[in-house]
Amino acid sequence: MHGTRHRTRSLLAASAVVAGLLVPGALYAAGHVGAAGAAAPPAPDPEPSGAECRTSVQGSRVVAYCHNPYPSTDRVQLHTECARWWDVDADARPVDVGPGRTVRLDDRCWKEVGSAWVTHGGETRAAS
């Protein structure tokens, strides 16, 4: 769980740096376009999507519950990194989380879990 916090902090810091680098260029471009009098229409806000996942680690077992409150389907996948060098890391099979649904993902290591996280694959189509 400690590795996930560190990874989250690192991603937030990197996002802040990238945003800080992009803002001056965006302000210049906005001023430049506005001076010419032909401003582009604002981009539409994307529809919110993506399941919210809660991951817990107890000993050698990892459990994640993902709930999707949005109208589009999300594909989630649990990744487990074991603490011991000889213990095999695992990537669970991806699972579709439909609108209003909750799924349970689980995995384990032989010994201690080093870290665990869930990735999202976006909207998927139902198989026909």
Overall description:
It is a single chain. The chain contains one helix and seven strands; from the N terminus they run H-E-E-E-E-E-E-E. The protein has two domains: 1-38; 52-120, Immunoglobulins (Immunoglobulin-like), CATH 2.60.40. Strands 3, 4, 5 and 7 form a four-stranded antiparallel sheet that branches. The chain has a three-stranded antiparallel sheet with strand order 1-2-6, with no helix packed on it. With 128 residues, it is α+β, with helices and mostly antiparallel strands. Helix content is 27%, strand content 35%. The longest helix has 35 residues, at 2-36. The protein has one helix at residues 2-36, and strands spanning 52-58, 61-68, 74-82, 90-91, 95-97, 101-108, 113-120.
In CATH's first tier, which class of the largest domain applies? Mainly Beta
The fraction of residues in strands falls at 35-45%
Number of helices: 1
From the spread of the alpha carbons, the general shape counts as extended
Radius of gyration: 20 Å
> Fraction of residues in helices?
25-40%
Give a short account of the largest sheet: 4 strands, antiparallel
Q: Give the SSE order as H and E letters.
A: HEEEEEEE
Task: Identify the CATH homologous superfamily of the largest domain.
Answer: Immunoglobulins
Q: Based on DSSP secondary structure assignment, what is the total number of beta strands?
A: 7
> Could you say how many structural domains there are in total?
2
Unreliable parts? 123-128
Mean pLDDT: 78
CATH architecture of the largest domain: Sandwich
Task: Assign the CATH topology of the largest domain.
Answer: Immunoglobulin-like
Strand-pairing-aware structural class: alpha+beta
Distance between the termini: 38 Å
Protein name: Secreted protein
Keywords: Signal
